[in-house]
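Issue: copy button drops trailing tokens. Both records pasted manually instead:
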Amino acid sequence: MFSKLVHIAGSLACAGITALIGGFLTTGLISLLVDGICSWLGIPINFMETWAGSIVFALSLFVWGGIGYLLGNVLQSAVDSFFNRQAE
């Protein structure tokens, strides 16, 4: 039971870290791209202050969180199988 809780906590921690890093990087790059294109076209806009910026930020956190959760599961399974082989 304790092992399962540690497994879930590790996966959630990996999801949170990945979501924050990936979400901010993705949103920042998209914001720079949109702001650059709009500036080039002569449209004064700050992408992150629009509703689209909020949606992009929320979706990128969700997507990167899912990727991080799956990555956490894979890493935890690899560590578990490594230590199980070492114990045998």
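Record 2 (pasted manually too):
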Amino acid sequence: MLSRLVCSKNNLFFAFLVAGYIFGVILYDFIEFKYTDELMALFLCLFAGVIVWERKNWKELIPVVIIIIIFLFYAIYSFIIQSNVPKAIFTDLLIQIKPFLGFYCAYLIAPQFSSSQKYFISILCLVVGGLLIIVGLSGQLYTYSGILPALRRLPSPPPFYFFIAVLINGVMFSYFYFC
């Protein structure tokens, strides 16, 4: 069975996306492993690096080099004016650059999913959404912190109208996205 598995960039990115959704979004607080997003960002950058190395088209990297130079200027300037302690400057640099690298690496990889992969992602999202509706209607949204970890810090369970607003937002997004 594993010998038939084709390790193309599309299949690897699909596995990366599903694993990121399950472990980095749904089960993030439940498994209590706080470095999931850093590992996912590292894997994504390495994967994009392999793709760029394979293509040998170095002109694709010009925008990322320009942005990295801008971020390095920002970091060096922050060190010169001593705007904060060095650890905070490095942390801020990582927080600022990580979303850009994620989007740009996904752009460089340019995956194209098959219809069965798109169907699997749709079903996975619908099943998880259905489970979250059940969790929300049962009033356990406060204790389940895998999706909304900020709600755990609230002194009391969130009101029911907040759940209804989030549900309506999800339904409207799905309607406008698919229609």
